Amino acid sequence: YRCIVTCAASSDTSTSVLVGMNSFTNCGCTSSATNTADDDIGNVTFGSLNNGVGTPALGNSTSVNLFTDFTNLPPQTFMQGINYPISVTQINSSQFFYSCFLTAYIDYNHDGLYDINTELIFSGQTDASLGGNTLTGTVTIPLTSLPGLTGLRLILQENGSITQPS
């Protein structure tokens, strides 16, 4: 960056200053969760990624997070134009389920934001029926997505609807 200061008819330009920027993978919105009780994401399976454990579904003592950061996981490989299965399992610390809404985003343009119009990849509502705590679907990686490290954000909201994370 360089600063140009003008006063009346004269001006002067500063020497350039290099400003380091964090990678988009170090940026992101803060969770707005306010309660650690009840519902949580137990397992995410997306392509070759299989993270977490979705059992036991009820009475699960690990269902106590406001949010969980898995940016320490090794990167997975996904190809543009290919369909990938996705599965997300809800767990609960109590002995019954609350209906929850899951929203999933991929930051295809690497801007550190998740756009509801262009980066929403999957959404659905869980229920208390047998197996109703697991949502499955298919995600197609668009040909316009940028290659390289890309963020994935999942939001599980009790009695919710589609959630915009940033």
Walk me through the topology:
Layout lengths: L3 E4 L2 E4 L25 E8 L2 E4 L30 E10 L7 E7 L13 E6 L8 E7 L11 E7 L8
Antiparallel strand pairs: 1-2, 3-4, 3-5, 5-8, 6-7, 6-9
Query: Could you name the ranges where pLDDT drops below 50 across 5 or more consecutive residues?
Result: none
Radius of gyration in whole Å, from Cα?
Answer: 21 Å
Largest sheet: 4 strands, antiparallel
Count of strand segments: 9
Helix-strand pattern, N to C? EEEEEEEEE
So what's the oligomer here?
A: single chain
By DSSP (H or I, 4+ residues per run), the number of helices equals 0
Share in helix: under 10%
Distance between the termini: 27 Å
Structural class based on helices, strands and sheet pairing: mainly beta
Strand order of the largest sheet: 4-3-5-8
Average residue pLDDT: 85
Strand content: 25-35%
- What global shape is seen? elongated
Describe the structure.
The chain is mainly β and 166 residues long. Helix content is 0%, strand content 34%. The protein is built from no helices and 9 strands. A 4-stranded antiparallel sheet has the order 4-3-5-8, with no helix packed on it. It has a 3-stranded antiparallel sheet with strand order 7-6-9, with no helix packed on it. The protein starts with a strand and ends in an 8-residue tail after the last strand. The model has no long low-confidence stretch (mean pLDDT 85).
